[in-house]
Amino acid sequence: MYNTERRPSMAERRPSIIASSAQYSSSSLVVPHLAGIEDPLPDTTPDKVDVLIAGTGMVESVLAAALAWQGSSVLHIDQNDYYGDTSATLTVDQLKRWVSQINETMLPCYSNAKLYVSNAIGNDNRKYISRDFGIDLSPKFLFAKSDLLSILVKSRVHQYLEFQSLSTFHTYENDSFEKLTNTKQEIFTNQNLPLMTKRNLMRFIKFVLDWEKHPQIWEPYATKSITEFLIEKFNLEPAQVNELIFSIGLCYTADTKVPHALQRIRRYLISFDVYGPFPVLYSKFGGPGELSQGFCRSAAVAGATYKLNEKLQSFDPTTKVATFTDGSKVMVSEKVIMSPTQAPRSHKHVPKQNFEIHRLTCVVEKSCSEWFTNNESGAVIVFPPGSLKSGNKRVVQALILGSGSECCPSGTCIWYLSTTEQGDRAEMDLDAALEAMEISIIRESSTDIVNDEDIVQITDNGQTVVNSVKLGQSFREYYPREPVQHLLKLYYTQHTSTPPFDIVAPSLFENETTIRANKLNKFTAEAGDNGVMYTAMPSTEISYDEVVTAAKLLYEKIVGSDDDFFDVDFEDEEEMMSNPPPAKYENAIIDDEDADHDMDADSSEFVGEMEI
Amino acid sequence: MLQFKLVLLGDSSVGKSSIVNRFVKDSFEDLRESTIGAAFLSQTIKLNDNGKEVIVKFEIWDTAGQERYKSLAPMYYRNANAALVVYDITELDSLNKAKTWVEELKNKVGDDNIVIYLVGNKLDVCEKDSSKRLVSLEGAKEYAKEQGLLFIETSAKTGANIKETFQEIGEKLYDIKKTEVNTDLDGNTGEIEISKPSTNDTTSCCS
């Protein structure tokens, strides 16, 4: 668009490239393998940078890496002494400090933080220590086919991280957890599904994989709810409708609009089998906190400067000088980008955060392995509207991470519950969901039952085998003798400008109007954040889907175009030679259009199966 | 093949990157260096275990400048098997800084889990002009002994003791690994390699 001449990128600026630039005349840049650690670094803070970014949350970190690799000089700061900001993964001690910051109202965009920490966690010979735990402030998982995943691979940031699969999605229904029927095979082998239902379900799945190509089917329902559409158009039963909307689609209400819901249901289905029989992944040692660190490291390798414990005091858009609270200054030639949580004390332009996300994070002293598939350590539990005692109107979503995720010690488990319900009702819903989960895990893991031959089978070698699926039913009346031990319980409300569901829209950054006013020298007197562009707080979205969109939008506003967003190829001799990637590799995760071809192939498989 | 993560710590300009470059680019021409662009460097070395050749691969993480304001991320230290804490023998203060990095490392990682090597770099400068040496060999050695660290002086410029340092770390780590060999040499951790999508569709029963 208004793209003027592009700054030379990191790769182009390297002497080794300039010397042999003829070889690298193609558009994709090759970065030599020692890039970033070849040259000694300057000793002092740069006195002039292109972009200043405050806050090391997911979006800011992806943006910093993209800009640094594109060739911009970036100073990336955070007021905290840890990485991650709104996306941080915190130890128990850090969490205590974070909560008191909120309650002293030193941290905008959060409120109502309440933290309980059991005395089993401490520093002197207690059972657990603070750093045994990594608690995510905005827990998220990664769809196997998603823009962030492509960028993780392309930028090589994935090499700093370890990923694990998550295949179990439970829907809470009639006071028990139903494991999701989410594979073609399961649909066909599930004895509980009547033939007609199987047929209808398969017909819907075939349609949704390329729903955009069949407007004749969905357009008449474009402004209607997905529930109505699934029942009227595909004759699906309530149980399947709930699973499709809430567990597969991860929607928040039953009246989600048809196109939105279809897109989300498709997202789950196309992510299945990209790496194996599961739709999502999560990163070990912490979610967004780890990913943020990875992108920050990548940005640093590309030349960005990092400074924690640094806070902006004010930015003067006329002189372009940013002043920090420690008295140091830097000249910013292009833009100051800032997370609302990092706003200077004298801020006047922080966008209104109109939406609430209520979160309840609970660490329990149970492994919860009953909820996981073999060898996995994560699960998702969804409580559809009306399924809880509280009469919840909106969904409560729970991400469960066990000790295999390395976020908590063996024998414990972290439950992340959240809801888009607003106001006081939200906490009631979260409490009801927590109670339902506690009752369920006690039923399923209880060992106080002996000598009941109906439920407990004794094998030849005398081992007791308890069938967890049957237990859910048989123990409806069972009252737990031992309640679930809470090691940590944290309630908080996060505020965001992103409406539940509208994944980041350009308009979110349109407080550019204030920036335009700034250009005309209409600055707000006494404001420390004139001319600053704020990023959006994380939305309620439980996947990372918004992150790249938001980072790209900001990138375009700074660079003028998003053409070269992470347009970097790394030199990689060994892997290329010894391990040629499968032919399908590039297309399988990066290119959506080609994916559609793959999907077509899959669809014909469905047809084949239908005729069995 | 055994693989170990090795991190470098120390103030900026003590020569951390030069040490890595000397080791990775120079020392082992006969073994391919594997190159991982923006992520980290790796280099393999050969060890001799009673006549049996053992190959050990180092995954070497450099700070990428994030140490300048003590802005290293927990990710950097995590699961590190060994750390080179580097100081400059011509800079008096750099040993004190190295000591704070050792503290930091012990706080973040726990010292029974990691082999720490204290490295005094820029030996070449002092060999030319002994008046340039400002950190005494004995003082540093004594500190290393107190703290239970390995210790050496090197020159990344001439290559002196660089190869030997990594070789010694390799042997040390190999010995540690051998004693715990029953734990998991290639246990299934459930980790997914995301740059390698699966090619076989396990749910299609008709293919």
From TrEMBL, chain A:
Pfam families, per the entry: GDI
Superkingdom of this protein's organism: Eukaryota
Disordered as annotated region, ranges: 591-612
Function: Substrate-binding subunit (component A) of the Rab geranylgeranyltransferase (GGTase) complex. Binds unprenylated Rab proteins and presents the substrate peptide to the catalytic component B. The component A is thought to be regenerated by transferring its prenylated Rab back to the donor membrane.
GO cellular component: cytosol; membrane; nucleus; Rab-protein geranylgeranyltransferase complex
Family: Belongs to the Rab GDI family.
Name the UniProt record assigns to this protein: Rab proteins geranylgeranyltransferase component A
Gene: KAFR0C04920
GO terms for MF: GDP-dissociation inhibitor activity; Rab geranylgeranyltransferase activity; small GTPase binding
Biological processes per GO annotation: endoplasmic reticulum to Golgi vesicle-mediated transport; protein targeting to membrane; small GTPase-mediated signal transduction
TrEMBL record, chain B:
Ranges of biased composition (kind: Polar residues): 196-207
GO terms assigned for molecular function: GTP binding; GTPase activity
Primary localization class, coarse: membrane
Cellular compartments per GO CC: cytosol; early endosome membrane; late endosome; plasma membrane
Region (Disordered) location: 187-207
Subcellular location: Cell membrane
CDD domains for this protein: Rab5_related
Keywords: Cell membrane, GTP-binding, Lipoprotein, Membrane, Nucleotide-binding, Prenylation, Protein transport, Transport
Topology term for the membrane: Lipid-anchor
One Gene Ontology term from the biological process aspect of the record: multivesicular body assembly
Protein family: Belongs to the small GTPase superfamily. Rab family.
UniProt-recorded name of the protein: GTP-binding protein YPT52
Gene: KAFR0A03560
